[in-house]
Amino acid sequence: MNLFVDVYKETYPYIKTWQFGIGNDHAYTLTRKDVYEYLKYVQKEIGFKYLRFHGIFDDDMHIYQRLSDFPLFAKMPKANQIVELNFKEVGMVFDNILAAGFKPFVELSFMPSALASKKIFGFHYKNNITPPKSYKRWKAFIKEFIMFLIARYGLEEVKTWYFEVWNEPDIKVIFFRGTKEDYFKLYEATVEAIKSVSTEIRVGGPSTSGCLWISDFVKFCDENNIQYDFISTHHYPGDGFGNNFGPERFKEIRENILKMGREKKSITEAMRKFFFHPEEYTKYPLNILVEKDLKTAEVAKNKPLIISEWNVLSVYGAPVHDEKMSASFIIDYTLATKDICTGNMFWCLSDLFEEQFLLHKPFHGGFGLLNNNGIPKPNFYAFKILNNLYDKRFDVSNENIKCSCFKKDNKLQILLYNFDFDYYKHKEENINLIINNKIISAQVAYINDNYTNPKRIWQELGEPNNLTKDEVYKIKVESSLKNIPLDFEIKENNTNLNVKLSTNDVILIEVELGV
Fold first, then answer.
1. Which of 153, 158, 229, 346 has its CA at a distance of 20 to 30 angstroms from the CA of residue 253?
2. The domain spanning residue 152 has which CATH number?
């Protein structure tokens, strides 16, 4: 296959909306030393601006404590009315975020048990997912929270943050045991509380999965004169629990639990069996997320649109999160979305993640850019490539593969990628690049099965559950993104370069132009 690269082609600005931010599990993990080190490393290497996470109001943050929370006093009269409100742990979390070089994108979740209408939890870390019992008390609590932040960090700093009301309230089973109308009531009360402290603080929502509820949210706010400073929502191809996990799938999960329990399988193996269904992914249109962005942007009525969660899959335990398919998807989506959104926030930073369980296998299909040992995965290197691309861009048309080029002075980067939802597809293309310039030098970097593949090196080590420091170092060094000299041939005034690109590979070629 021949690809002609015209180095004199007109360029347009390369816009990095993907750099707006990234997610990171729940608040309590941000008090861990290793997570803090991972934050600093990713910020240094890639440079995301905002950090978003769940559970700033969860009980493990010790914000709203009652005497009755201690078992000895639980049944004593009036013990639940002896309370103490303290945001010290919250301050530690925000201190760590700021010290690591991020700004907080504050997801206002979940409900402190002392304020909750019911005792219903969504995750392993016992996040209460019910609306407040008293909206008056909830509003007073939110005001105290905002005043604490302003006192600690100053209004000039806090007004540069974003405040997002709740997380995926459309998903009842794990995030919000209320109706759409209940969420709108919660949003209205929260906005009133925040704006009563300062009208300069940015608040938005509805933070739904699959770009749902946007029209209804906009209509509700407009008709009731309720402020929304931005629209936030999430999307993943398939949107796991939101779309394709109906009664039949849960029946299948129950049957698998019986079978795998008899076979004494691990939780990691079980999660993969439950949620990884590659035969379904081939049904997704390749541009599914870009189409959702375009439709949602139309409804957002010129308000800033922030996709505050996205990834190649929303399901936990999928091998693709550890492999080149994730990297290829990241490159494909980010370069296609351009400036449709104000910002995109990849989910998430590391595999130290405990929504369902805190799994310890080094490569268990977690959502993160770093595994639980801090080893960068292929998706990390996809973002590193994106971060290091030059500011002037042009594209090369081809039906079978995608090629985007980036220029700076006499330097040219050629990025080849071939994303496909078919996990088992391995079609290889021999590509002959023809550049209308006598280049001086060329080098190439690969994200494929052989290069930048830490999972392969771990497998060659025998898939140890507990890596030694030496093994972690070995995997990091051997799987890092490496520039390799690339042979080229000059014919008349053109230069020919040859590479092989397989399905879901990413190839970055950098050349120095002769003129």
1. 346
2. 3.20.20.80
Angle of CA points 177, 121, 259, to nearest 5°: 105
Mean pLDDT calculated for residue range 12-32: 96
Q: What distances in angstroms separate CA 355 from CA 124, 352, 421, one per listed residue?
A: 6, 10, 25
The closest alpha carbon to 420, from 501, 312, 503, 337, belongs to 503
Instruction: Out of 100-114, 173-187, 245-259, 485-499, pick the least confident.
Output: 245-259
pLDDT at 243 over 50: no
- Dihedral angle computed from the Cα positions of residues 442, 448, 450 and 452, in that order, rounded to the nearest 10 degrees: 80
The verdict on 106 and 163 lying in the same domain is yes
Q: CB-based contacts of 424: which residues, under 8 Å, 6+ apart? A: 278
Q: Say whether both 287 and 432 belong to one domain.
A: no
* CATH number for the domain harbouring residue 502: 2.60.40.1500
What the block records as the tokens of 192 is: 């009133």
Side-chain-facing half-sphere of 78: CA atoms under 13 Å: 1
* Cβ 340 vs Cβ 290: under 8 Å: yes
Taking the C-alpha atoms of residue 139 and residue 158, their distance in angstroms, rounded to an integer, is 19
- Minimum mean pLDDT range among 98-107, 355-364, 403-412, 473-482: 355-364
State the Cα torsion 465-471-473-479 to the nearest 10°.
-80
Shared domain for 368 and 423, answered yes or no, is no
3-state class of 316 per DSSP? coil
Helix, strand and coil content of the chain, in percent to the nearest 5, comes to: 35, 25, 40
Contact 417, 327 (CB under 8 A): no
Burial of 487 (0-12, 13-18, 19+ CB in 10 A): exposed
Residue 434 class from Cβ within 10 Å (0-12 exposed, 13-18 middle, 19+ buried)?
Answer: middle
Banded model confidence at residue 505, pLDDT cuts 50, 70, 90: very high
| Phi, psi angles (nearest 5°) of residue 24 | -160, 75
Ramachandran region, residue 317 (left: φ > 0; alpha: ψ -120 to 50; beta: rest): left
As a dihedral over the C-alpha atoms of residue 397, residue 399, residue 402, residue 407, rounded to 10 degrees, the angle is -10
Measured CA to CA, the distance from residue 176 to residue 209 in angstroms comes to 12
Do 319 and 338 fall into the same domain? yes
Residues 110 and 131 both lie in one domain: yes
Pairing outcome for strands 402-408 and 392-396: antiparallel
Sequence-ordered alpha helix ranges (H) in 396-498: 454-460, 469-478
Name the residue range of residue 259's domain.
Answer: 12-387
In the three-class reduction of DSSP (H, G, I as helix; E, B as strand; rest coil), residue 310 is classed as strand
Tell whether 415 and 369 lie within a shared domain.
no
Strands 162-165 and 202-208: parallel
Q: Which of 338, 361, 387 is the last residue of a domain?
A: 387
Of 339, 366, 387, which residue is a domain's last?
Answer: 387
Distance between CA atoms of residues 327 and 344, nearest Å: 16
